[in-house]
Design goal:
By secondary structure, the chain is of the alpha/beta class. The protein has 2 domains: 201 residues, Medium-chain alcohol dehydrogenases, catalytic domain (Quinone Oxidoreductase, Chain A, domain 1, Alpha-Beta Complex), CATH 3.90.180; 137 residues, Rossmann fold (3-Layer(aba) Sandwich), CATH 3.40.50. It has 12 helices and 18 strands. The longest helix is centred in the last third of the chain and has 13 residues. The chain binds zinc ion (ZN).
Length: 344
């Protein structure tokens, strides 16, 4: 089968690899119908050390179940299923709490041991706990929005939940990639009255406005912080969604949270230390967030997608087949595309 393998910074190839197959009795074999390239795939694309064996890529996919192991009981052959960006058993202490990304028997797609989503098929561990059956046909018109539930929409929602977005309050979203844009959707969905979007790219700004952003801040650094304070009577936002992970974006996010406010961090931190420790301490700012338990959010978000109340699939502005994956990485890295969807 063909799959995406990364060999180093800027070096992504589509290659023939051994066919995915069931190894454990709790596995399912899924033939991929749609996959996406994630902003977090761009971190290794930017900085991965060269590797001879490479690293399988992709953690956002939907597909059809082709086979199941003998201990898989809920997922059936022929089901159309979505796979969240981490796999999980669905039964351990943390899964029961809804924190599937901390599953005691879970893990992450791709790398050197497992299949990735940017390939023709995937061995799915812990299939009953991991996969979410979708009640639509494989080429349903809502497929792009459904695909976002595997990561970016769930992650934007997680940022909003951990930043305690609530009705009538002010939310600020730092970073306008697909996650930040989904964060705008999530903040509006949870009732934020004012949604301040911090990004400087025209395509992202226009989509953010469509999704419900009320104010745009295109400046960076201290000027951005001053602008947000001006927009909030000098007090700052109740809820801040940090959707980048850089030192500067984290500094901005923590600096614009008002006293007693909360920051939901979903951008993977690129630095060891957290900035702005002293001011956030004295303002009693809650600092929360982490990898979104996407598997836990399907039940809540899926009806809104199916009934058209949210349209996160609009973040996809690049589409192609598997041969286009390397070009999709390049387009996203060069900021010529927000997010790429791959059809199989
Ligand atoms: Zn678990």
């Amino acid at each position: 089968m063909r799959a995406t393998v990364m060999y180093g910074a800027g070096d992504v190839r589509v290659e023939n690899v051994p066919d995915a197959q069931i190894k454990e009795s709790t596995d399912a074999l899924v033939v991929v119908t749609r996959a996406a390239i994630c902003g977090s795939d761009l971190w290794p694309y930017k900085g991965m050390q060269p590797s001879d064996i490479g690293r399988r890529m992709g953690h956002e996919f939907i597909g059809v179940v082709e086979a199941v192991g003998k201990d898989v009981h809920k997922i059936k052959v022929g089901d159309l299923v979505a796979a969240p960006f981490a796999w999980s058993d669905g039964t351990c202490e943390f899964c029961q709490q809804g924190l599937h990304t901390s599953c005691l028997h879970g893990g992450w797609w791709g790398g050197t041991e497992l299949d990735g989503g940017q390939g023709e098929a995937v061995r799915v561990p812990q299939a009953d706990g991991t996969l979410y059956p979708l009640p639509v046909s494989r080429d349903h018109a809502l497929m792009p929005s459904l695909l976002t539930l595997t990561d970016v929409m769930a992650t934007g929602h997680h940022a909003a939940v951990t930043a305690k977005v609530s009705r009538g309050k002010i939310a600020a979203v730092v970073g306008g990639g697909a996650v930040g844009l989904c964060g705008v959707i999530a903040a509006k969905r949870l009732g934020a009255e004012q949604i301040i979007f911090l990004d400087r790219h025209a395509d992202r700004i226009s989509l953010a406005k469509e999704f419900g952003a009320t104010d745009i801040v295109s400046e960076r650094g201290d000027t951005a912080i001053e602008r947000v304070l001006t927009l909030t009577n000098g007090l700052g936002a109740h809820s801040v969604l940090e959707c980048v992970g850089y030192e500067e974006s984290t500094r901005t996010a923590l600096s614009i949270a008002r006293a007693g406010g909360a920051v939901g961090r979903v951008g993977v931190p690129q630095d060891e230390a957290m900035p702005v420790a002293m001011p956030t301490f004295f303002r009693n700012v809650t600092i929360s967030g982490g990898p979104a338990p996407a598997r836990a959010y399907f039940d809540e978000l899926l009806p809104d997608v199916l009934e058209g109340r949210i349209q996160p699939g609009k973040v996809f502005d690049y589409a192609g087949d598997i041969s286009k994956v390397p070009d999709g990485y390049r387009a996203m890295y060069d900021r010529k595309a927000i997010k790429a969807i791959i059809a199989f």
